[in-house]
Amino acid sequence: MTIQKQGEKEEHTYEIVGSAEANMQEHKISHRSPLGASLMDKKRGDVFAFETPKGPQKYKIVNVK
């Protein structure tokens, strides 16, 4: 899944996996992590908020594979 923070051009691609397979260096995030849970059941074009250390941030789903 590729996401983009609103107001920025840079995109980030993640694979949602089970907790045992999660590895941020490989861009694999757990479906139980805050970001992974936020991405569940989303489709291309959806906008969602994700809680970060700097407060809630809005992201857009750019692509789903």
Automatic annotation (TrEMBL):
SUPFAM superfamilies: FKBP-like. GO terms for molecular function: DNA binding; RNA polymerase binding; translation elongation factor activity. Residues 2-65 form the Transcription elongation factor GreA/GreB C-terminal domain. Pfam families: GreA_GreB. Keywords: Elongation factor, Protein biosynthesis. It comes from the Bacteria. One of its GO terms (biological process) is DNA-templated transcription elongation. This is Transcription elongation factor GreA.
